[in-house]
Every structure is written in structure tokens, then in C-alpha cells.
Amino acid sequence: MANLESLTPKLSWLKSEDVRPFLLIRKDSRLKKPGQYFDLNEFSKEPLFMDPLRMGDVYFSNALLNMESRAFQNSDMPMPRWVFFDCAVMPGFISGFAIRTKMLPQSIVQLIGYENLIGDWTPVSMFIVIPTMVQGEWVAHNLSSINSLIPEDDRLYGLGFLSKAFGLAYANIQVCCGMTQWGSPALRLHSHYGEIEVVTAYTPGHTYASTLTYRLQVNTKQWSRFFTKSSSEEFANRFDPAGFSIDPTSERSQIAFQEKLEKKFGPFYLRASEIRSQPLNKPLTVYKKKQEGNIT
Ligand SMILES: CC(C)(COP(=O)(O)OP(=O)(O)OC[C@H]1O[C@@H](n2cnc3c(N)ncnc32)[C@H](O)[C@@H]1OP(=O)(O)O)[C@@H](O)C(=O)NCCC(=O)NCCS
Known about the structure:
Elements: H1 4-7, E1 19-24, E2 48-50, H2 58-71, H3 81-89, E3 93-100, H4 106-112, E4 121-123, E5 125-131, E6 137-145, H5 159-170, E7 175-181, H6 186-190, E8 194-200, E9 211-218, H7 225-228, H8 233-238, E10 239-246, H9 251-262, E11 268-270, H10 272-277, E12 284-289
The structure holds coenzyme A.
Coenzyme A is lined by residues 71-72, 75, 143-145, 147-148, 157-161, 180, 184-186, 188-189, 276.
């Protein structure tokens, strides 16, 4: 990706001395060779390392859970504390950005509560990623940012997107599954990390059956499109419409899509530029890979 800050002036915050990336990661889990597919210097600063096993660092986990429970309040999916520990920081790790506590805007101080501001740095976003039993495949377990909770003027544009990008880049992740609900704004972010395949279109095993499970073939060269909003010629060259669409508001449409997946008519894909450019409740074209030989 081109130098991040050069993509849009809205990313000038990356240069600020008062914002830096963080990793909440067990010492044993730290990568020996991070950033093999994406230069971590793009994130401007040395990451702040926090240890989830240290009592002295627990304030950082508290701050993350405080922010996360507010971000997920509307969808009724705040993460229980034990899930955070047992299912996130033990097997995986957390990436995100933190703001120098004394420089936090008033809107964030009020939201978090002055009494909860402990430590020099306060986390304002998080991405949790966990390795799976499938060789080389990870699963994204949580993405949240404070942006949705504060006035526009105080937001750091791209905070959610770059929190996930930083985690994927740190751990050299090339294949990453994830779950999100149809119609969620988060799908706009998830679809911009690389080719996005639909693994389940209707998921009754989840609390919310209208959950989409996806698999990303991470392609760091495509990340800049999130900021430039350009559509990928490579996509048009490699994929054709599969002949049906998915209506994110219709359970019937989700089930019909899931039946096609279970009958092994796939694999099926979505197009990032379409997800980004149209209203979240509009039907999305479903795509299939072109046959080898048909690629122009
Ligand atoms: C979804 C979430 C992580 C996005 O993070 P963010 O920091 O707000 O988003 P970013 O600044 O990285 O990206 C902004 C882009 O996201 C999309 N977006 C973010 N919030 C949106 C919303 N409410 N409606 C529509 N699009 C939205 C837009 O495309 C926007 O860019 P654009 O306006 O230039 O098109 C954040 O809103 C959040 O924490 N939501 C609550 C928790 C949640 O639903 N998490 C996702 C679980 S899968």
C-alpha cells in the first residue's frame, strides 16, 4: 500500500505524537518476524506492548472492555470478561490504537469516565484475532472502535479499519475468517482486506441467525482502496456475477443462499466496492470466480 498518510488528509492523525498502535499480547505469543507482508512502519509509531497476564497492565484490559461494551450495546453483544480472557488474549491477541490520556478529547473523557482514566495511554479501538485449527487460518473475533460513540469532529477516520489492518500485518495473517451480521457497517471494512468469500449466509448456530461468516484471502496491496474508494480492476477480471443476489434484510434470501452453499454450488464472493458504495440494506450481487481460461 502507498504510504498511508498520503492516501487522504483524513489520516493525518497517524502522524500525531499523541496516538500510537498497541498490542495486548502474551509475551509467549509475540511474533519473531512481524510485518512480513506489510511494513509496520506505515502505522507511524512503535507499538505499545501491554501484557494481559500482568496485574499492573489490567487497567488496559478494563479500558478496552469499557469501550467495547458501549460499542456493542446497540447490538446486545458486549463481550463477557471471561470470554475476553479465555477466548481472546490467551489463544490470540489484540491490536488497536491508543491516545495519550492527557490529550483525550472531552467527549471521550466523558464517555469513559474520568475515574477510569488510568495510565499514560488509553485504548480507543480493538481488533481481536485468534488462530484456528485450520493451518494458517485465523478468526477475527471482535472489532470495535470509539468512533461510533463520539462526535464526528473527535473521530480518527479509519480507526476501525486500521486496527484490524495492524493486527493482520503484525501476525503475517493471510487467511482470516470472521462473522458479522448482514447489513452491518462493519462489512464495509471487512471486505476491503482482500478477496471475501461467503462461508455461511445464514447461521442458526450463532445468537443471530442472520450472521454472515466470511473468509478473507488477505491482500495487503488492496488495502489502500479503503481510503481511495477506487474499485478493483482485478476483481472485474477474475469474478463474474453468479446469477443471484443476497438481500441483507431478508431471512428467506439468506437461507436460499445458505442452501446453495450447502449444496456446494460455491464458492461465492462479494464485491468490496459494491458493499461500500450502496446503502447497507440494498441487495448485493453474489459472484463466482471465472473459469480458468476465461480470465481476460
Ligand atoms: C463498525 C466499526 C468497527 C467501524 O469502525 P470506525 O472506526 O467507525 O470506522 P472507520 O473509521 O475505520 O471507517 C469508516 C468507514 O466505515 C463505514 N462506516 C462506519 N460506520 C458506519 C455507519 N454507522 N454506517 C455506514 N457506514 C459506516 C463507512 O464506509 C466509513 O467510511 P466512509 O464514510 O468514507 O464510507 C465501529 O463503528 C464499531 O465499533 N461499531 C460497533 C461494534 C461493531 O458492530 N463491530 C463490528 C463487529 S463485526
